[in-house]
Write a structure and sequence with these properties.
The chain is of the alpha+beta class. The protein has helices at about 1-5, 45-65, 90-110, 130-135, 145-150; strands at about 15-20, 25-30, 35, 70-75, 115-120. Helix 2 (about 45-65) runs parallel beside helix 3. The protein starts with a helix and ends with a helix. It has five helices and five strands; from the N terminus they run H-E-E-E-H-E-H-E-H-H. Strand 1 (about 15-20) and strand 2 form a beta hairpin.
């Protein structure tokens, strides 16, 4: 988790990050005392904490052959980077969105042992690795619920 916190440039890195099972939260071991996720800043940092915790848990489950489904479903992952009524990113926000997706892509590629990540989001980055990862686009007539069912 510590390496991933650095990769995502989270607020309290390069301090060691860990999951505190007794409190069910991410903790950065800062001096003079540990800092819990709730005290680590805003939405962008919380998103990063949740992502590294999920990925660490799924990696651990897989390595220990635990009977946990090998998938994670994420909805509106990039909501912290833009207002709810807009899918237009500024330059800085777009770079951060791309960095989060690239980190997820690399983390899956690095140790994908049957783990599947399903993300439903408005983000549609114009970079080859992102476009290659899109399985389905549910816009307009290609919606999740076919128009014929509605009418």
């Amino acid at each position: 988790m510590t390496k991933w916190a650095k990769d995502l440039d989270l607020e309290w890195q390069p301090n060691p990050y860990r999951l505190d099972i007794s409190l069910l939260t991410v903790v950065a071991d800062t001096d003079p005392r540990p800092t819990r996720m709730a005290q680590m800043g805003g939405g962008e940092n919380w998103l990063g904490c949740h992502l590294i915790a999920h990925m660490a848990l799924h990696r651990w489950f897989s390595e220990k052959s635990r009977p946990v489904p090998r998938f994670l479903y994420l909805d509106q992952l990039t909501g912290v980077y833009y207002p709810p009524d807009s899918v237009q990113y500024g330059t800085e926000e777009r770079a951060k969105v791309e960095a989060v997706y690239k980190w997820l892509f690399d983390a899956l590629t690095e140790s994908n042992n049957g783990f599947q990540l399903i993300i439903v989001d408005h983000a549609n980055l114009d970079v080859p690795w992102f476009q290659a990862a899109i399985v389905e686009e549910w816009w307009g007539d290609g919606g999740l619920i076919p128009q014929s069912w509605i009418s």
